[in-house]
């Protein structure tokens, strides 16, 4: 089937100069060309900016293999009642990508320089240097369209909202672009947007007065200078079709300025007038959109201990989704330790650690963790999430830099956001990109933060190189070992044992809720680190401490791992068996850890496959956006040391057959 790019550019001569009137582009089949060309011609001849006297229609054939398919950004709407409110919302959105309010104001002030440009301004997000080779022309993001059904008609030609989603989705997919700002140059269209990777496309209903012809775009770039050319190539030459583009805006999912700044509106007497009639409708709309995009989530009740076999919906199922990597959740010694602790100390700790909530069990477990990890000391948090949030927010002091892998866990991301540091994201496990960013901020107090085992893809951080770079650039290191303790290394001591490193990272964070079959998080490191966190980590200071039974269970599980390292070796062997069997049946899957991703790309397929496997008594999780990137939906298998070889071979064969049936 022949596929074509159709572009329309229209202008008119006014006072001796050529003035842009309109532009549009489509990617379509040969059968659509005639109707779409006529529709674009009419658009150029009947525009709010006036009738064009020069119209260019350009048609190019596209090879199907040259097309890239991407998913549309998630959409929200900010209901601004004035242009000033809209611009404030846009400036606030820039803080999501680590831009200070002062710098955001400078970027917004540069909008006026885009009004006469044919394309967009490409701006270094940190030093505000313009990067486009031709400042008058700017960067033209082209060769893109929404993926349409065969029933598309020429009436689809003018849809400001849909065209903006397409452009923003392509721009944010470009290498090292962290945000796009846009204000339409159509006098009759006052809406604009800000698009970022983390928040998606935020439509702002008013950015200028009606009838104002001003408008332009700014692309914010944060990356190595030597890769600017590749970013520009992608924007200007890569053919892209965007999937799942909504045809019209959903109701507002971002509070208006009246809602988010009520104290100002109370003074103005406008809060009541601007309040929604049904304040719950916006949340209902958000959930409806999640259901429509196969991103809605529910809970599933498991009515047994989460061992290798579980009872779910009155059926026994093989569990391939649990983080109980060593199968210790129902170990009799672990259960007995928890029961004994509850009998001695009761069911709760009674207070925070710095008031009445420190029991002998807390101190004993901290000593055991430090000894197991080979560090001076340790500190316990209530969950792994609270550990990361507490550690990173405490370490991220003002004027410091946190260098964070782009695939780090959400708890690391939230810790960065809560800190006073600037967060610099480096490409996943890309040591060249990390070094370039370390060079850029060479004189700053810094902390490199990475997962040891990345929780969705199951791959392992390049810790040896990270440690080398940290020493070279005089920064600290922090490794989240949630999925490596009990999993990696000959005795299950984690990533440092896996790589045979003589030196430890400065901060070894981990959890007791996975291989240690209990609950809680921890940090291991120097006595200075632990003393500092005990006095500054807010999630430690202001939380009631862990219950006695939980502490005793974790302590006993750690003792079992120490005494029986062959459990970790059995888990590693199970991973090899499972991956080999999947490959034998045509599934591309490989892992050195207990996490084995089976990439399906399609959210709906992942859901259907997981549901079908449950009917075959195999419990495996479907993982979708935003837990993983768009177009990266997967079945995520999590293995245990207590799975048998026969169970894993049967499961792999069944998974492969089920996926083939559904495709």
UniProtKB/TrEMBL annotation:
The keyword ATP-binding is annotated on this UniProt entry: yes
Biological process (GO), any one: biotin biosynthetic process
Pathway: Metabolic intermediate metabolism; pimeloyl-CoA biosynthesis; pimeloyl-CoA from pimelate: step 1/1; Cofactor biosynthesis; biotin biosynthesis
Alphabetical list of SUPFAM superfamilies matching this protein: PLP-dependent transferases
Keywords tagged on the record: Acyltransferase, ATP-binding, Biotin biosynthesis, Ligase, Magnesium, Nucleotide-binding, Pyridoxal phosphate, Transferase
Residues recorded as bearing N6-(pyridoxal phosphate)lysine in the entry: 514
GO MF entries: 6-carboxyhexanoate-CoA ligase activity; 8-amino-7-oxononanoate synthase activity; ATP binding; magnesium ion binding; pyridoxal phosphate binding
Short name of any one Pfam family annotated for the protein: BioW
Catalyzed chemical reaction(s): heptanedioate + ATP + CoA = 6-carboxyhexanoyl-CoA + AMP + diphosphate; 6-carboxyhexanoyl-[ACP] + L-alanine + H(+) = (8S)-8-amino-7-oxononanoate + holo-[ACP] + CO2
PROSITE patterns cross-referenced by the UniProt entry: AA_TRANSFER_CLASS_2 (PS00599)
Start-end of Basic and acidic residues biased regions: 11-21
EC number: 6.2.1.14
UniProt keyword annotation of Aminoacyl-tRNA synthetase present: no
Recorded coiled-coil stretches: none
Domain Aminotransferase class I/classII large: 316-655
Region (Disordered), start-end ranges: 1-21
Cofactor needs: pyridoxal 5'-phosphate; Mg(2+)
Annotated family: Belongs to the BioW family.
PANTHER family, sorted: CLASS II AMINOTRANSFERASE/8-AMINO-7-OXONONANOATE SYNTHASE
Subunit text: Homodimer.
Function summary: Catalyzes the transformation of pimelate into pimeloyl-CoA with concomitant hydrolysis of ATP to AMP.
Protein name stated in the entry: 6-carboxyhexanoate--CoA ligase
Organism name: Anaerovibrio slackiae
Gene symbol of the encoding locus: bioF
